[in-house]
Structures are given as structure tokens and as C-alpha cells.
Amino acid sequence: MFERILIANRGEIALRVIRTAREMGIECVAVYSDVDATAMHTRMAHSAVALSGSTPQETYLNMDKILDAALATGAQAIHPGYGFLSENAEFARRVMAAGLVWIGPPPGAITTMGDKIESRRAMAKAGVPCVPGLQDPVDDFQAALTAAETIGYPIAIKAAAGGGGKGIRIVRQASEMESAFRTASGEAKSSFGDGRVYLERYLDHPRHIEIQVLFDQHGHGVHLFERECSIQRRHQKLVEEAPSPVIDPATREAMGQVALQAAAHVNYEGAGTVEFLWSNGEFFFLEMNTRLQVEHPVTEMITGVDLVRQQILVAAGMPLEITQEDLVIRGHSIEVRINAEDPSAGYLPSTGVLHNLRMSGGPWVRLDTGMFRHMEVGLTYDPMLGKLIVWGPNRTAAIERMKRAIAEMNVGGVRTSMPAALMVLEHERFVAGDFDTHFLESLEIRPPEQYLRLIVAAAALYRHGLVERSAMDPLASERRGWRERGRREYSAYARRQLERGESQ
Amino acid sequence: MFERILIANRGEIALRVIRTAREMGIECVAVYSDVDATAMHTRMAHSAVALSGSTPQETYLNMDKILDAALATGAQAIHPGYGFLSENAEFARRVMAAGLVWIGPPPGAITTMGDKIESRRAMAKAGVPCVPGLQDPVDDFQAALTAAETIGYPIAIKAAAGGGGKGIRIVRQASEMESAFRTASGEAKSSFGDGRVYLERYLDHPRHIEIQVLFDQHGHGVHLFERECSIQRRHQKLVEEAPSPVIDPATREAMGQVALQAAAHVNYEGAGTVEFLWSNGEFFFLEMNTRLQVEHPVTEMITGVDLVRQQILVAAGMPLEITQEDLVIRGHSIEVRINAEDPSAGYLPSTGVLHNLRMSGGPWVRLDTGMFRHMEVGLTYDPMLGKLIVWGPNRTAAIERMKRAIAEMNVGGVRTSMPAALMVLEHERFVAGDFDTHFLESLEIRPPEQYLRLIVAAAALYRHGLVERSAMDPLASERRGWRERGRREYSAYARRQLERGESQ
Amino acid sequence: MKLFVQVDGREFEVELSHVAGKRVMLIDGEPMEVDYRAADALGQVILMHAGKSYGISIEGTTHQVHATLAGHAYALHMEDERERAASLAAKAALGGGGPLEAVMPGIVVEVLVQEGQQVEAGQPILILEAMKMQNEILAVAPAVVASVHVKAGDTVPAGAVLVVLRGLES
Amino acid sequence: MKLFVQVDGREFEVELSHVAGKRVMLIDGEPMEVDYRAADALGQVILMHAGKSYGISIEGTTHQVHATLAGHAYALHMEDERERAASLAAKAALGGGGPLEAVMPGIVVEVLVQEGQQVEAGQPILILEAMKMQNEILAVAPAVVASVHVKAGDTVPAGAVLVVLRGLES
């Protein structure tokens, strides 16, 4: 087993990996950018190496610096987390070339699955059902228009090198194609450095259902059932659960087998996720994520399997000790992402300093986060601050538990996505299991009216307290007041514009 | 099902009950003493009623006030938590007489099991194995000396009305009897208002192992396996786990059956715990706790059963849905109590204001606590601030996970028992499962030497920062400095004395 | 003095006074009895009202407050009579135009207008990339571009003036 | 100026100085290079030393500090040269006796001595109940009871003077 590994990531996932590695008796080397010098992952690792700089390019995406850090500290392996370099085949190759172990799948599998077009080609060859669409990138919007005639509207434009929903645009009629093509291609270029896009049929009332797989280096693989990830907005997931309320045992078994087939076809190793679109009982291969997923904890909660531990064991060459027969679904698990964004204002990103934290706890509540009081939330990195995860003996119990856990949580200093998740959990359609990937976008996130007078009273008394406290320096208070009001005017102004911009 | 219940308790257990009740859609009425006006349980309940006053007698032990609060708020049932009125048969009767439901066992069962002498008599009749000893209280130390000849040393003097280790004294030779008898009887009188004590044989290398049972009102009962609670000091548990490393399936089954037999004999209802002393493969009935135990979470973690939910369902008259066959042990769970005390100074109680909290989190870590920043920890109530609980697929994994969780936790402002728990978890005898109820008392709690220079450096730089900050008000800093130093002199002085006092 | 509190598109008038040493609160003229207590100095508050208890988290300034109750979030804006008069006067002076500020930090991808250009309501002014999403910033009303303060590639902090518009309605 | 730091029964001498704008620390004369950074204003600290990183929690005053590292707790006492001289002088003046203070709040159950009484080392002075446990408070050295400040039934706060002893050694 490794004595020391480097975690090439930040935030909750770096901490997540550190936690398991510590439990395995493995020393952890953290890397950190300037703003992360006092982050939880930096503090909780055994060693920490500064990646001077603040942009992702200068730090967590900088292969040279990360490899240097690993070699300098004597790390024997690198865990990439998710995002950043986790699906970068070149990095995986360089890690291996440096004589280190890559805690992830073989670069070939990353390359094949990372390119949406190539992966669909490979999957079609492997007999895996795919969504109708083109397998080649389209050069311009004219070509896209022509192709769309064959595939049929609605059409999804996707980045060939993309992932996580970035660069995706939906086109419902030909007239929308030009503008959608331009922005999709532009975003793809700026996000992934590769502007190629491809087209596929957009399924109606689709559900996003994915299968977790785990393969060792000796050809043995298991699937760990499905995750239901249909509660998403702009293809960013918000609420995930396992198992899915619409998947029956036969479908589960069929999807599991297809996922194993897909992974085996690319000689997969480690933990990976095969994503499917499910629509009216049919399921189609969407893509494979060749890394740990954000939502992996719900699988852990229903199976009792620590996926990070399995990743490390597999990377160390150990044979899988788990057989498919060992794996049983116990109860139900739900995850809610805590993003720094304002769901009542078009999910506008929110920044600030966390100064009023109240954490959820108690029975069967898990909080994966790198949040701490005084933490500064900026825009440099992903807005996800953490994840609340609950387990319950059944779906109803898990929903009630998550509502309770959200009620206990407060992240003061920024707006978060939690009120949106709460509205989802309280919605009769969610409770009934009757939703698709458009459900979240259809919700208007507003706080319940019944408490308005109460909250107004609280705010008035809060203000009263502030005014009394600042009585010693009335000018400072006055100045701040004016500045705040001024800022609000323009915020509202720009927000309206932004909302209009988005509704296009 | 109830629409509203009152929770006649405070701290983590009040919050624990509120959490489950909220998940069941039941409104919670909290009661609070003056110092608890802003406590977590007060904030997290749906309504909160002030029990004016600050001593336990004026508040959480005040039956009149609590019954008034329940009737005034329309609560239909009362959950007593543990401690306070939870094992008070008179209170249970008064709750019922007021037309409310008592979420606990019938008063008769409380009375029988609450009196250690009567309970041993009843258990002997029911054929349950008991520790050799007297069944009647002894009047004075002379009578105790005579009785001791028959039972044989070492002898344990116990309060007839006691529980939780209070009022217990061990006598290893006749010459110690007088002083031990006096203090045991005095403590029993002041703690329980009943100075009667009885004697029993003190078993060598004993382990404290207890069985969780659950009975409905229709005569159906199940046991939820054992908890190992041998890591204790002055009969106060510190680290608990389930299952026990020394109990094999046959013994587990035998102990479970005896526990069911014991509970059935007193027509038990609800959740209860039958405590045993285990010594060299034999087990003896110790006492039954007719309430929820502090350490109930470890049973919840290995069975997936929410014991508070079961208590409420049973009290509402529902038949148990769980059968003995449904219950299977999955993995291993450990709990560590976070007490406000200084284990490196004779477990001296510690008070203060919590101003530097860092909470554990992540996979399979559960934190049950009412702690919050700015909370004042005084001496009025129990020193237990909360509990860290972990689950793992096996005992080794659970130990490693708990060590990790403790490393993440900080409760700044008071000293806590966590360093002692950490030393237990790191000890080869604990890891090997080779320990008894004396193990903890044999440990000297000291921090590892290897980090001393590092900590000295940190403290010096911390002081440097404080001095720089207070440069604007040097006099204040100077005064504080002197005062603190003075206090330390006398603390050390009194502590030495206290330690001597304890070693008697 | 009256306090105007806006929340979720509604406005409430709050009057807080002391009668015989006791605090009296009127919301829209109706009495509101509450017991308000801070659990810490950081915004953890307990409020009791009509026999119910509410654990509220609250942060902000005297004018902008954010409150969370049982997972639901409320953004409130407050101003007293004097402040309201001042803000109405300021609004009137802008006449439908005014500076267009970045509501969040980001990178200017493209500026689609020039100084002096007339723009329609809904016309894109510039494209701002933030959180890796490209957002078109639109004019809300017909206006003339008075000045442009950024160019493509600029990194702008929240609150930075991007473009100043002169309203055509004034 | 030298700083004396006591922890776990040991004493370390720390010298902190600035050489050419750089902080230099000597512990017992040996150089100790550390990078110390506060994560918040509340005592969360990260310390780097010899290629390792340590997340430390630290609270206290300039003289009494409590630090936690990976679950292990350290109680430290610090004084500089000037303070040490003063404290040694004070100790000498007490001559083995001094006031006996309550180390924690509690209730006096019984006072076992009287003014003027001579006590042996190890003799019980009084019984203090705290945390529902009765604790005998003993004399550490032969002494005479100079004064008794409490009686049975008194509730005493931490730091209250219970009894003053006059040492027989002086």
C-alpha cells in the first residue's frame, strides 16, 4: 500500500480523499493556491505544497507544479478528485511517466470516454444503446441545420470535449440554431480549449440516471446500482438520490450490465460512472465520467462501500474484494449540493465571507464540506461549497430527514442553493417520484409567505440592534447604509437584465 | 400519531428527539431553563416554554412546571430523554394522570427496575443470572462489614436508587469500608434523595456489556444486540461500541434472550437496556435502564433502526414492525462522549465559553450535539456536550475513522475528554479488544512528546500575535496577564490536592 | 420613525416604539408581539411569537439583511422615511438610465455597443463571462450609451461600472 | 526577550527575534523554522514545519494557552523573564502556605478545620461537591489555618478563596 499520496484538488473533494487516506494510514500531500493557504484541505493534510498563483491555470490545472510537488514530497501516487485534471489523459500519462501511480482509469479509457463523439462511436460498437444523433462534430451552424433535419428537433448542441453540462445548448426550432451554435461553441472553446460541438436528439421528459462501476486491474468489475440525478439546472445537478424511484430491479440489472459492458469495452480500472438518459422506460448511453462523481456519497450510503478507499486499493493493484453478490441496496440516500448562488435571483453566483455558519448534524446526516468560519467565497473556483447527504430506511424517511437537515443548516455570508433544494423536496411531484431533468428549471424559488411578517419583525429588530451598537460611530453606519442601498439599486437593475438575458 | 409532543430535557438528547420528531411530522415543544433560553433545543423546537430558574430542581426536574407546559401547549405526549425525570415512576404516573402519553415504559417497570435491590430480586425470580451479593440495603458500615465476609472482597457499594455510576464505591479491604460507606451513602442521598446502599461482589476484569431491547404494547419484543461499554471511569462511560469484540454469536443470542426475559418479566414497553457484567465468558445481570441510553446511536448505526422513532411509535400504540429475523448487525460503530473535563488533570470539570469550534464531518461520521459558538458551559448540568459516532464496515475501519474524526474536532474554550478517548483508540490493548472496565482508569492521559516543540512554537507565535494586537492597550493586557498567572498558580495547587483526594 | 421593509416583492411598514419601557412593534399598523434574543454575536437568533419558537439565522447591514428560517431564505431591504426620500430623489435624477454595473465579478468577453450609440430595450450591451457561463447583459429601456468603461478581456470586480446609459425617457 | 514555556511537565526557552526583516525563532537555543498562519480570528491556525503541515486549534491568553493538534490537547503556560522574576518573588513570600481557592464552582458540603488549627500534609480541609461528585480538598504541606472563608452549604464560584493557610516551612 502507498505510504504517501498527493491530492491534486481543493475544497470538499480534497478533504474527502484526505479523510479516507488518513483512515487507511496513508500520508496526504495537499497542494494549494494562494487563496487556499488556510483552506481545510491544506490544514488537514500531512504536508502541503504551495502552487503559487490564484487562477486554476496557475495552480490546480498546472501539471508541472503538481508533478514537481509530488516528486519533491515523495508521494507515490496522485488522486485527482473530480474536475481540474481528473479527466485529463495527458496528465495521467505524465503521472505514470514520472514513475508515480495514477489513481484513476488508464489514459486510453479517459481519452475514449472523454471525447463525447468518440465514446458514442465506441459504445455503439460495444452494443450499448445511444441517443439518436450525429457522431461527428459539425463545422458551422449551416451544417448543424442540415443535420438537425435528420435527427429531428429538439436538438442538443454539446461540446465534444465538454463535461458537467458546460457548453450545452438546447435548440427547439431551426431559428434558434445560429445563436445557440455560436454561444455553445464559444463556451466550449473558452472552457475546454476546444470549440468542436456535436448534435443529438433531445429526449422529452428525460431522467438522468447513472450507474456507478468499479473495476480492478485484473478484469473484475462490479456495478453499485444507479443514482437518480434528474434534479438539475443548466445540466448542473442539485439533488441526487439512490436508488431511483423509477428503476425497477429488472431495469437496474439491465442498466448495470450495460454499464459493465461499456466500461469493460475500454478496459476500465477504478471508479467510474456511466450516465444514461432514461425516457419512458428506455435508457440511452449519454457519457461516461472517468473519475469519482460529486454525488458518489449516495452510493456509499446505500451500499456501505467507501468508493475512495476502493479507488486507492485498485490503484495499488489489489484485486476487488467485493463481488456483485455482496452488493445489496439498503435504504435510500439523498444528496443536496450547497452552491454559492442565489436561486431566487436566477441562480446568480454569490460571493462573500462565511461568518454565520450553522451546521446540520444528528442521525444519518453526513456533511462533506471544506467550509469554515471566515472562509472567503470567491469566483475563481467552482461555486460548490459542500454537500449534505442523508440516509433513511426508505425514500420517504430520507426526504423528511433531508428537509430536517436543511432546516438546521445556515451558510451566512453568501446565498446558497439550499432553498431551491428544499422546495424540490417539499414538492408533491418530487415526493411522488414524478419529475424529469426540466423539473428544477420550472420551479420559481420563493420563500413561504406565511413567515413574511415574522421575518420582517426579526429584520427590524436586527437593524435596531445594529443601530444601537453603532451609536458610538453614527457616521460610519450612515455611510455604510448609503453605500449598501446604492449597491442594491444597481444589483437589482443588473439582475433584471441578466434574467432577461437568460430567458433568451 | 401525535401531532405535538413535549421534550422534557435539554442538550444533545433534547435535540436528538426533536430531530426524529420533526422527521415524523410531529411538532415539538421544548422546555428551557434560564441559561438555555438560546440553546439549540430551544431554537430547533416548534414551541418553547420557559421553566424559570436555573437549577435542575427549578427546571428540568420540576414536574409541575413541565406538566403545565405540556397542557398549555396542547402536547399529547412527553418524551423524557435520559437523566432528569426519565426514570421517575411518579412523573410517569402524573403524565398519564394528566391525560397525556408517557413515551417510556409503564411506571411499574420503572419502579421495579429503578430500585437495584428490588430489580435483582425480580430478576433472580425470573431466572436471570445475577452478581453474588446482598439483595437488601445495609443500614450502617458495621452491617456492611459483616455482610462483606459472606460475599467476599472486593465489594461494590451501590446506591439503591442510583444509576449511571453515581454513588458507587469499591471496597478492596475491610479497613476501607467506613469511609467508603459514608461517602457512598452521602452521595446517594444528595443525588437521589435516598441514602440506602447495598453491597455486591465486585468482579475482576469485568466488561460492561448491555443489550438494547424494544417492546411494543402488544407483548412483542426484540433485542438489538449488545453494546460494549467497558471504557469507563468512575462508572461514567467514555467510549462505547457495537458489537462487542468479545461476544460471539452464541453468547449474543443467549444474552439477548436473557434480556428479553428480564424485560418481559416486568411487562416492559418501549426502548430499554439490560446491563450485564461479563467476566471470563460468564455474564451477570447488573441493572436495567428503563429509558433511552446516551450510547444508543451505536446500536442505530449497526441496525439502521431509529430508536427514538420506535419509542414514539410504540407509545402511540403501534405494533412493532421489526421482527427479530429482520435485525442483522451490519459493520461496526463506535461512540466517543465529548465531556467538559480535563483528562490530563484527573478529569477535573472544565467550564468556559465555546469560542473556537471545529466540527468533524465526512463519510460515516455522526455528531450529536447541542454545541454552538458562544455557548456557555457551566456546572449546573451534566458535563456531556455531545457525542461523536462513526460507522465502519468492521472494527478496524471504525477505529481508524474515529481517530480521524477526533483529529478533526476542536472544542475551544473548555477542556474535553476527547484526548483520553484518542489514547484509548490508539492503545494496542483496545485495538486487540483486550480491556475491562478498569482499563481507562489505568491510562495516564498525556499528549505525545514528538509535537511538543511544534506546539511550543505555535504558542509563542500565538502570544506574539496577541501582544501585537493589544499593543494599543498595553495596560489591559498586562493586567490580564497577571490575573491569569495568579489563577494558574492556585489552580495547580488545588488540582494537586484534588488528585490526592481522589487517589484515596 | 417608520421603517419600510421590502421582501419577496412586498413592502411592509414597521413602527418600533417604546411605551412605558416596553417595546411595541406595529407591522402595517397591526401590533406584532415578539420575543427576540441573540444566541451569539454572529447572527444566530431565537424569536418567539404567538406561542411558537423560531431559530433564525440573520446577517447583513442596516439596509440589506439576509435571513434564513428552517432552510428558507429571505432577502430584505430596509430604509427609514428619511432614507427613502433621499433614494427617490436619486432615482428621479437618473431618468431611466444610469451606470450599468457588474453584478458579479467576471471577464468581459465582448462589448457590443459604442459611445453615443442608441440602444433599444432588450438589446445586448455586452457579454460578461462569470462562473464559466457567458451572460448577455441587455438594456432595459431605450437609451443612449453615454460612456463605455471596459473592453473585451477586462477582468471586472463586482460593482464595477461597465457602461453608462442616458435614459431617453427623461 | 526570553519566553519560558511550560507544557506537559517540561519547560522550553523560546527566543523570538527579527533578523533582516525575517523572524527567527530559537527553542532551547536551536533554530526552529515555522510558517504560522491564522485561518480565522478565532484560533484556527495552520503551521508548516520541516515539510509537514499541521492544522492547530489554539485559544487562550498571553500566559495560558490551550492548543489541540490532531485530537491531542496541550496546556501551556508562558512567562517572559520579567514576569518570571515577579512570580518567583510572589511564591517566596507565600512560604508554603497561601490562599486555597476553589478550582471549580461547587457547593461546600463540610468544612473540616477551624481557624488556628494545625493541619498535616494530606489532611482533609473541606469537602466540595461539584459535578455531583464529592471531593475532599487536602492540605499539601503542614500548615496552620489562618482563616476560613466559607461554611457548609455555601455555593462558591471558581477562584473563590475557601481557606487561607500559613505554611509551617517558612
Which architecture of the largest domain in chain A does the CATH hierarchy give at level 2? 2-Layer Sandwich
In terms of DSSP E residues, the strand content of chain A is 15-25%
| Residues in helix, % of chain A | 25-40%
The overall average pLDDT of chain C, rounded, is 86
Give start-end ranges of low-pLDDT stretches of chain A.
474-504
**CATH homologous superfamily identity of the largest domain in chain A:** ATP-grasp fold, B domain
Computed Rg of chain C: 21 Å
Separation of termini of chain C?
32 Å
Strand order of the largest sheet of chain C: 4-3-2-1-9-8-7-6-5
| Largest sheet entry of chain C | 9 strands, antiparallel
Instruction: Give the oligomeric state.
Output: heterotetramer
Helical stretch tally of chain A: 16
How would you sum up this structure, described in words?
The complex is a heterotetramer, with two copies of chain A (about 500 residues) and two copies of chain C (about 170 residues). Chain A has about 500 residues and is α+β, with helices and mostly antiparallel strands. Chain A contains 16 helices and 22 strands. Chain A has helices at about 10-25, 40-45, 65-75, 90-95, 105-115, 115-125, 140-150, 175-190, 250-265, 295-305, 305-315, 395-410, 420-425, 430, 450-470, 475-504, and strands at about 5, 25-30, 45-50, 75-80, 100, 155-160, 170, 195-200, 205-215, 220-235, 235-240, 270-280, 280-290, 330-340, 340, 350, 350-355, 355-360, 365-370, 375, 385-390, 410. The radius of gyration of chain A is 23 Å and the shape is globular. The termini of chain A are far apart. Mean pLDDT of chain A is about 90; it is low at about 475-504. Chain C is mostly beta strands and about 170 residues long. Chain C has two domains: about 1-80, 2-Layer Sandwich (Glycoprotein, Type 4 Pilin); about 95-165, OB fold (Dihydrolipoamide Acetyltransferase, E2P). Chain C is about 10% helix and about 60% strand. Chain C is built from one helix and 17 strands.
